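STRUCTURE:
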């Protein structure tokens, strides 16, 4: 089985009479897409805007970021089991509109949404400042619950991404990437001398708007399971959470997971990447014990030499991270952890809520409590009012000159725990 990803590089994004790609420019029929999205009875208003790299634009509060894609050889879009019919993801052919994204914003759902600056110091902290962003500002009808509001925005973003992805269906990609997918025993037969590596992919699932979806299933309802690495490229994993912006994995992060893509780039060369174990992050001790026990069992079953473990969020999930690490290490399998830190604004506090002597190989995405001052922007898409109540903001964040001072946790992707960022930390 094979997976082919065809990238179409988008250099500009504009509104136009038809939704199509011409000369590496994505044109979007604003009226058609707006009407399509307003079919959701939970949405009262939908407005589309565009933000380009280098513009004096601030987008907030951001709910999700999604990359448009399409399966050209089958009917319907990606995100199976969510907004497309159920089918197994991660094989066949997928076309991707690279350089463009859908960003959802509007009335705040939870206090942990964040911001994207398209220029200035904030732009240096978020990968989404480098994209041509179709921003959807959506507000709900009166009386909707927070859960209905979150679901409406989540599905709206996915539907918009599928709508744009259709423009890539019949295009000839600028590049095609091939990925090898083999049954487990074939990996061992084909690469007998290479170290075997798996990826333990922890997904946010603490509830209360802290959710992630696997083929449309809320992952707090699953036990750890195996997944082909390429399934994320077709939207098998979708963000549905409002955790702190700096380390939330947006849907775009899942689609472009650096851990998965980096391991695939080295597969068959200096390591053999045998697959992923997806697991959840829990609230109760019993659930944490269950998930970490079953995760360690699956990793042992794979017979690997080492694993990379990434988490999403901080505090409570740190315990899941360390439990997974400890139980896997105790089986004689080496682990590398990918996380970020909440070490206080001066960097002197305890970085993680849990720890273990066995957690001795850790990659840090930076200190989310570090402060940054962002200059005023000429334009705000969405609403700047929540800046003092979102995670990372505080009373006095917003200054009379229009600038704001926030912790890094207010910026989407600033300390991302998949390594999709520019920061790290160093021990002195």
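SEQUENCE:
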């Amino acid at each position: 089985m094979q997976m082919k990803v065809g990238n179409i590089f988008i250099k500009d994004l504009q509104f136009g009479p038809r939704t199509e790609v011409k000369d590496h420019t994505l044109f979007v029929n604003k009226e058609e897409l707006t009407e399509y999205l307003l079919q959701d009875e939970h949405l009262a208003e939908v407005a589309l805007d565009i933000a380009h790299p280098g513009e004096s634009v601030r987008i907030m509060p951001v709910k999700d970021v999604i990359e448009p894609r399409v399966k050209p050889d089958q009917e319907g879009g990606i995100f199976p089991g969510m907004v497309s019919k159920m089918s197994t993801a991660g094989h066949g052919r997928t076309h991707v509109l690279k350089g463009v994204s859908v960003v959802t914003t509007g009335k705040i759902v939870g206090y942990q949404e964040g911001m994207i600056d398209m220029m200035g110091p904030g732009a240096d902290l978020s990968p989404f400042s480098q994209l041509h962003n179709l921003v959807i500002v959506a507000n709900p009808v009166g009386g909707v619950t927070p859960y209905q509001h979150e679901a409406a925005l989540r599905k709206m973003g996915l539907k918009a991404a599928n709508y744009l992805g259709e423009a890539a269906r019949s295009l000839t990609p600028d590049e095609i990437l091939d990925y090898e997918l083999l049954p487990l025993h074939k990996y061992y037969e084909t690469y007998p001398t290479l170290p075997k590596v798996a990826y333990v992919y922890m997904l946010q699932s603490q509830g209360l708007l802290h959710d992630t979806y696997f083929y449309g299933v809320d992952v707090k309802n699953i036990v750890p399971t195996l997944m082909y690495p390429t399934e994320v490229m077709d939207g098998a994993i979708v963000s549905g959470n409002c955790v702190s912006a700096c380390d939330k994995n947006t849907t775009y992060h899942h689609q472009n997971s650096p851990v998965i893509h980096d391991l695939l780039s080295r597969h068959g060369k200096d390591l053999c990447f045998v697959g992923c174990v997806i697991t959840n992050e829990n609230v109760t001790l019993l659930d944490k014990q269950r998930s970490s026990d079953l995760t360690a069992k699956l990793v042992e079953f794979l017979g690997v030499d080492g694993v990379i473990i990434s988490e999403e969020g901080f505090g409570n999930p740190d315990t899941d991270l360390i439990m997974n690490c400890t139980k896997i290490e105790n089986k004689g399998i080496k682990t590398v952890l990918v996380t970020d830190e909440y070490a206080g604004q001066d960097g002197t506090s305890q970085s993680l809520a849990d720890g273990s002597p066995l957690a001795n190989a850790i990659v840090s995405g930076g200190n989310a409590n570090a402060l940054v001052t962002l200059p005023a922007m000429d334009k705000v898409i969405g609403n700047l009012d929540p800046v003092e109540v979102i995670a990372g903001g505080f009373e006095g964040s917003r200054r009379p000159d229009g600038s704001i001072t926030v912790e890094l946790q207010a910026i989407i992707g600033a300390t991302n725990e998949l390594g999709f960022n520019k920061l790290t930390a160093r021990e002195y």
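REMARK: Helices lie at 30-37, 146-165, 184-190, 251-255, 258-266, 285-302, 316-329.
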